[in-house]
Amino acid sequence: MDEVFKALADPTRRSLLDELFEQDGQTLSALEQRLPMTRFGVMKHLRVLEEAGLVITRRRGREKLHFLNAVPIRLVHDRWVSKYAEPWAASMSELKGRLEEETMEKVFEIYIKTTPDRLWEAITDSELRSKYNFGVGV
């Protein structure tokens, strides 16, 4: 599984996998035309992907065709990703998306002359917070 993580860590190799996902069974020449690197560079990346089991090659006459093998990616998902995809992780992902949205519903600004400790207490202490949250639970 370490080989899969190593292979997926490189953006060029991920691009190669994306190319094979779009059109499976491509030759080295076809893949080389899509990337801004030498033939040798593409071969080097394909070799890492093959060693990780992410790319499988088959010969067709004189051509060597490269095929995406998504099984190792699924195994990584089943072992690592789904393990952490509990409801709280989904909630955190949703919160991240909402907070990173470009649009803002309301914007308020106030300057408070206080110490960081007192401000933190006002934000985190539920009894203090209830006095200025206008009845809204946080």
Name its key features.
Arc Repressor Mutant, subunit A, mainly alpha, 138 residues, 3 strands, three-stranded antiparallel beta sheet, elongated, 8 helices
Strand order of the largest sheet: 1-3-2
Ends apart, CA distance between termini: 42 Å
Show unreliable segments.
none
| Arithmetic mean pLDDT | 87
Radius of gyration: 25 Å
| H-E string | HHEHHEEHHHH
Strand percentage: 5-15%
Helix content: 55-70%
Within CATH, the superfamily carries the name Winged helix-like DNA-binding domain superfamily/Winged helix DNA-binding domain
Biggest beta sheet attributes:
3 strands, antiparallel
Q: How many DSSP H or I helices?
A: 8
Q: Which term fits the overall shape?
A: elongated
CATH architecture: Orthogonal Bundle
How many β-strands, per DSSP?
A: 3
**Number of domains as seen in the coordinates:** 1
CATH fold title: Arc Repressor Mutant, subunit A
3D architecture notes:
With 138 residues, the chain is mainly alpha-helical. It has a single domain, classed as Arc Repressor Mutant, subunit A. The protein contains 8 helices and 3 strands. It has a 3-stranded antiparallel sheet. The model has no long low-confidence stretch (mean pLDDT 87).
Short description, anyone?
With 138 residues, this protein is mostly helical.
Give the topology, please.
Elements (H helix, E strand, L loop, with lengths): L1 H7 L2 H12 L3 E2 H7 L4 H13 L3 E6 L2 E6 L2 H11 L5 H13 L16 H9 L1 H7 L6
Antiparallel strand pairs: 1-3, 2-3
Helix pairs in contact: 1-4
